[in-house]
# Entry
Amino acid sequence: MGTILDKIIDVKKTELDGLANLQLAEVASRKKRSFIEKIREANEMKIIAEFKRASPSKGDINPDLNPQEQAVQYEQFGADAISVLTDTSFFKGSFADLQAVRTVVDLPILCKDFIIDQIQIDTAHKAGADIVLLIAAAMEQSKLIELYQYASEKQLEVLVEIHDEEDFQKANSAKASLIGINNRNLKTFEVDLATTERLAPLVLQSGASLISESGIKSVEDVVRVQNAGARGILVGETFMTAQDLKETFKQLKLPVRTV
# Structure
């Protein structure tokens, strides 16, 4: 019996042909919006705020939220980048969501999806993404390197996501400059912040900037991953369900500690 990730990838393979016929208006003009530059110059924890309607582990999170209204608030309250889930089958997102967000904010936008083919990168670029996610566990090393180089040629930044040491070796082979440690195991969907603590030394030694992803809900969580070496966090559910979004941002945006 396959894992949840295996199931998602199998479905994703069936969707690739449909992307060729997806009707998206090309972004009129592109300008460079670099999240990597932001994080390298950071004097505070950088936040990638995620728009996520649902997930396989949580079910519906906030399915009726307007992506443009949420994105405007994210920018207003201090997000440094916005992640938009574009997977429909499991997360109830779409590339239309990404394009809608692009029209109302001037922040770097991350296309969050299970990318396994160049056409997904083309579609993300067309919709207005500045960054694409490549999940190391979703592909062989050679494929990761191929897609990383393809995205880079299109002037897109790449966040390479890892969850274990094998994933890190793939990311390092691609010479990734931005690595996200996903505290959620995509094979079981269990979350453990100790994953960031375990893998952070490898990432920092490689010279890549480190993002901690998933399971970050409190100041204590931010302090924990910050102490491990994270300079940025990716937060979705906590923002999507926040009663006071402004206050939640204020709590999580901690100053960067200097050694």
Notes: Residues 4-14+38-252 form a domain with the TIM Barrel fold (CATH 3.20.20.70). The longest strand covers residues 46-51. The beta strands are 46-51, 54-55, 59-60, 81-85, 109-112, 131-135, 157-162, 178-182, 209-213, 232-235.
